[in-house]
Amino acid sequence: MTTLTCQRVGKVWPGAGGTSVAALCDIDMTVENGEFVAILGPSGCGKSTLLELIAGLEPLSSGRITLDGKPVAGPAPGVVMVFQDHSLFPWLTVQDNVGFGLAMKKVPKPQREARVNELLDRVRLSKFANHRPHQLSGGMKQRVAIGRALVESPDFIMMDEPFAALDFQTRVLMQKFLLEVWLEFRPTIIFVTHHIDEAVLLADRVVVMSAGPGRIIDEVRIDLPRPRRMTDPGFNDYRARLTETLEREVTRAHAEDEGLAVASAA
Amino acid sequence: MSDRTEALDGAGAPVAEAPAKRVVPSWAWVLFKGLVPWAVVITIWELAAASGWSGSVLFPPPSAFLSYAIESDFRVGFGGDAMPIPIAILVSALRVLAGLAIGFAAALATGILISASGSFSDMILPLVRGLAPIAPIAWIPLGIVLFGIGNPTAVFVVFMGVYFILTISTVAAVKAVDQRLIKTARSFGASKGQVWTRVIFPAVLPQVFTMLRINFFAAWMAVLAAEMVGVKNGLGMMIILGREMFNTKLILLGMCIVGATGYAVDVLLVQIQRKILWWQQS
Residue A34: which CATH number? Predict the structure, then answer.
């Protein structure tokens, strides 16, 4: 299983005309084996960049990321990612999408099919095995994406606002489903969201990030028994604390922007 | 299973499965609307000819040139050179399809190699962009010099007409591939080669095929032109034979078949696009 550590991680993107944009600055974070961590923050705070760095899809600009003590250098087996827009391959059927990772690793067809069928059953899409992504609803697509992630029995799943594009009802069902999966397989999960309620509902721990450049400004351990409901006593305290933190951050960022505008006008 | 199973299954009925409600039976209505202008043009033409319009010698109406096909037993030419009209259609259509298929495959391969080769693309792209604007018809003389008179020339002309433009289109399509699909593939352990063959290649197919369809008409014209000036069979030869014999019925019959065949091939390409290459890049 997998423990993640980020030490003073920074990422700078090249900008227009030789300038550069700092996306992440001094990120220190540890995620324990089997832990469910939510990363909460406004748009543009570098949440997605952080995930891509951990997934080994982008090189670091500074600092160090290790999985079980080994520095990340490229996509690692057992570490998978689920994107917001599901990123299914439109030309593949549901079963071929789910089996994609196994096919890349040249797992023999009979084994692959058996494993894919198992997973399709698990995400309750067996009936749609031969459908194409465009024939599915948003919730079903996201279930395919989750199935595709689970097919390799990953130790570590990163999810980048996976339910943001879903309607309320579907999102609630998907959250339940994700918790079931997590309790059953106990992978380590990093779940990026900008929904405070979603973070409190799902996570063991909520990491709050700020924008421009992305930094960690708060960390809250959620000590509520599962299964949680938004009406549970104590839920509101967490919600209030996180709301306050985020509001303070938004106000600060806004004031900074104003200050910049004034400075450039003068 | 449990209640929550049903809840999850109910959460997403497949979108595309719902039958679309249509008040008008659509295909019949579309067909009708498409046929009306044809009926109007043909009626005016026939009436003009029937009322003794002198131009009908040069422009014989459909009743005259279509019946000419029956009179001539669906054959054009003389003696041993005579060719059944269906064979002429087949010959021309196969030439253009062969050229398109070879051009499409070669352009995809070239475009992907150029895209994959980084700085090499700066060297090869200007060359391709300089050759792309040359109209397919302009390759005919060179084709005849290289391959003489026959099928290879016709296929060569179509190939040259689409190859460069589709190569450019492939390079552009590769650049436009959704980065998230590539990142997803990589995070699932796809190697660099697998990203090219399993993600980028299928992702660019529809866009390049659309470009192929757009360029089909130019290729079709080029085949006919090649058949008129050198390659002595097919539909182009049929029209030029009409000119040589001052047989306007044969000319118009040829034009009519050229139009219908081109239309049919275009419909075929649209069907390929809808049934096989239906996904689109967003």
Answer: 3.40.50.300
Task: Enumerate the residues of chain A whose CB falls inside 8 A of the CB of residue B198.
Answer: 100, 103-104
Residue A119 lies in a domain: no
Residue B36 confidence (pLDDT)? 94
Side chain identity at residue B204, one-letter code: V
| Residue A262 pLDDT exceeds 70 | no
CB contact (8 A) between residue B279 and residue A101: no
B217-248 pLDDT tens trace: 989 999 999 888 877 788 998 898 888 888 89
- Counted domains in chain A: 1
Show the domain range for A22. 4-78+154-265
Cα→Cα distances B166→A116, A188, B95, B206, Å: 37, 46, 18, 12
For residues A6 and A17, the model is more confident at A6
Q: What angle do CA B103, B106, B112 make, to 5 degrees?
A: 130
Rounded Cα distance between A126 and A137, Å, is 15
CA-CA-CA-CA dihedral for A195, A197, A198, A204, to nearest 10: 120
Kindly report, residue by residue over B2-45, the tens digit of the pLDDT: 444 444 544 444 455 455 555 677 888 889 999 999 999 999 99
The domain spans of chain B are 79-275
Q: What is the ipTM of this complex?
A: 0.83
Pick the CATH number of B79-275 from 1.10.287.180, 1.10.540.10, 3.40.50.2300, 1.10.3720.10: 1.10.3720.10
A179 in any annotated domain: yes
Instruction: Count the neighbouring beta carbons within 10 Å of the beta carbon of residue B28.
Output: 9
Query: pTM for the complete prediction?
Result: 0.80
Q: Which residues of A touch B (CB under 8 A)?
A: 52, 55-57, 75, 77, 79-81, 83, 85, 87, 89-91, 100-101, 103-105, 124, 128, 131-132, 134-140, 143, 148, 152, 169-170, 173-174, 176-177
Please count the CA atoms within 13 angstroms of the CA of A160 that sit on its side-chain side.
24
Q: How many CB atoms lie within 10 A of CB A134?
A: 14
Q: Is residue A115 included in any domain, yes or no?
A: no
Mean of pLDDT over chain A = 87
Which residues make Cβ contacts (< 8 Å) with residue A46, sequence separation at least 6? Answer: A11, A23, A24, A209, A211, A213, A214
Cβ pair B14:A128 closer than 8 A: yes
Helix or strand run (H / E) with residue B165: helix B151-175
